């Protein structure tokens, strides 16, 4: 059943409070609008989720920074960046300014999504903080929990008008809160005001429950409290966006899925019934009459209707990627990794549209 608010039942005088019906999750690269003259550079660019969002809002994304060669190849294939830096952000920060393009020192927005595995509520969290490890987000040993502060060093180096930094909801929970305090202090030290919001994709026209923390910082004389980051879009149920059929499950997963009962969140109880052990928490069901759960990098979402993994089209749709996005490797886990590690483009589009009035006057 479609979720309604009290304002949906009232007259036109309350229309500004009614939830907005959205279908812009369905798009292709030809739908990019005319450029608005504002420039963005994307760090930790991945497959380009943020890049596509800014472009959908009319911004010119002039380049990217990415450590992972596989991701960078996908980025180049789909976005053809003017400036492409395949390197650790620490190496970029140590590059002399006179060796970098002048355009990078005249940015309207510096965008960054520091890899967030160490802050995920589903991960090991504190056990990985400060530890060198070869994470899936890169191709060499590195620490991840310090990357927000390394990114703030990039801010200090390039001095953009605005900064948009994204991370997982878990960054504000438990002991990780001390990182938020350090982020505020670090921005203040370099002369930037900052504010953060917890934004929920399901209220932004995203066909999945995806919650992310966004830090917005500026060196301009702007009151960040006046920037409206409240969104009220109608939830998009999976039946509204799904393809006809998904991708096949491995036999052992299929057996567990067949033993599951309607309404169960994941395979935990099926595993308990069949194996005597509660496990497979990350294999979650997607129901037609509900919003899709978060698509993670593991791509372990199972369609209840067909007992399949999500199809390529399903992954693109729940992630608000364009339908003509090109993957180099179309194995389910590889497509899921690209989509699951990316910020949904429509999420960034919404944020970029809210920032535009403040930037166009500068």
Features:
362 residues, alpha/beta, Rossmann fold, 2 domains, seven-stranded mixed beta sheet, three-stranded mixed beta sheet, 10 helices, 10 strands, disordered N terminus
Give the CATH superfamily of the largest domain: Vaccinia Virus protein VP39
> What is the CATH architecture descriptor of the largest domain?
3-Layer(aba) Sandwich
Count of alpha/pi helices: 10
Domain count: 2
Strand composition percent? 5-15%
CATH class of the largest domain: Alpha Beta
| Largest beta sheet: strand ordering | 3-2-1-4-5-7-6
Could you please say which CATH topology of the largest domain applies here?
Rossmann fold
Number of DSSP E strands? 10
* Major sheet attributes: 7 strands, mixed
**Average pLDDT score:** 89
Q: Low-confidence stretches at least 5 residues in length (pLDDT < 50)?
A: 1-9, 119-132
Return the structural class: alpha/beta
- End-to-end CA span: 45 Å
Estimate the global geometry from the Cα principal axes: globular
